[in-house]
Amino acid sequence: MKAVLIPELTGPTAARVEEVPEPKGAHHRADGRRVLVDVHAVGLSFIDPLQTRGKYQSGLEAPYIAGSELAGVVLEAPEDSPLRTGDRVAGIVWQGALAERALAIEDYLVRIPESMDYVQGAGVYMNYSTGWYALESSRVQPGGTVLVTGAAGGVGTAVLDIARAQGISTIALVSTDEKERVARASGATHVVRSTGAWLDEVKTLTDGRGVQGFIDMVGGDGFLDTVRALAIGGTGVIVGFAGGTIPEVKVNRLLLRNLTLTGIAMDVMEKEHPGTLERVRHGVQDLLDAGRLSPAVENTYPMADTARAFASLENRTAVGKVVVTVKES
């Protein structure tokens, strides 16, 4: 079968399409339970370019088959699995998705509705599970408002989409006209520009009180203003540091305004609190079943252009979800 191989850890340009053996056995995280998927489309994330440089914390030695997330059709599953041959599914696999067939993990798969094509499906699991868990962690209730940084990216657009479905207002923080277009298309209630006096705008939009929560994908030098945007008693959720630097905050700011800052890592929580992954998966599945989700896929590439797709994530030119098509849907 054809697959995108990373023969050496020298960055996105190392990616190339080669003939490789069919997958054997089970995914290394699947406890011996073999789930084989006929791959139609592959969603990319920050994991993918990081792994090509050996910089992801759970990275792999080269050579390896790239691709962290897939959408396709179940070819094989255990007899006692809730999955059946022919099910249309999407999920995260961390490695090995960029191939005509790939091993998957039951705990990280959702069924996608017939109304959703595989390209959209490839934009569901990683971003929407992260977005769902982040919104839950923010404790913002329907009718409240959440600030979303990096709002035109894959997770940011997912947060906007889920918040719209849950009746939560959003303020999207973006830097360009194109990113504003994507954020609005994904359901942002309001959009403010990071290049202007955005904190003042946030306060104006919230009658001077600030937002009940924020979800931050960026970190960097602007993080302190993100904390300042919180209302008294608000909660900030830290998802990542796309800005390149990890910020520091003096904790007296939290004390004086009763603020909460929290990070999210579902796998870590699953170890200490089993059932976390199942709760998140069911939350996303319920929204899919209700037809409430519309993944923002702005960029698609053929397998032969995977290196270019990786580079768009590494240099932060991508908006929405980046998807590589493996076969015609």
| Computed CA radius of gyration, to the nearest angstrom | 20 Å
Order of helices and strands: EEEHEEEEEHHEHEHEHEHEHEHHEHE
Largest sheet: 7 strands, mixed
The helix/strand class is alpha/beta
What is the overall pLDDT average? Answer: 94
What share of residues is helical?
Answer: 25-40%
Let me know the number of strands.
16
Q: What overall geometry do the principal axes of the alpha carbons give?
A: globular
Percent of residues in beta strands?
25-35%
Describe the structure.
This protein is an alpha/beta fold and 329 residues long. The chain contains 11 helices and 16 strands. α4 (154-166) links the parallel β9 (145-149) and β10. The chain is globular. It starts with a strand and ends with a strand. The model has no long low-confidence stretch (mean pLDDT 94).
Strand and helix map with partners:
Layout: E1 2-6, E2 16-19, E3 35-44, H1 47-52, E4 64-65, E5 69-76, E6 88-92, E7 101-104, E8 109-111, H2 118-121, H3 125-138, E9 145-149, H4 154-166, E10 169-174, H5 177-185, E11 190-193, H6 198-205, E12 211-216, H7 223-228, E13 230-238, H8 252-257, E14 260-263, H9 266-272, H10 276-289, E15 297-302, H11 306-314, E16 321-325
Helix pairs in contact: 3-4, 3-10
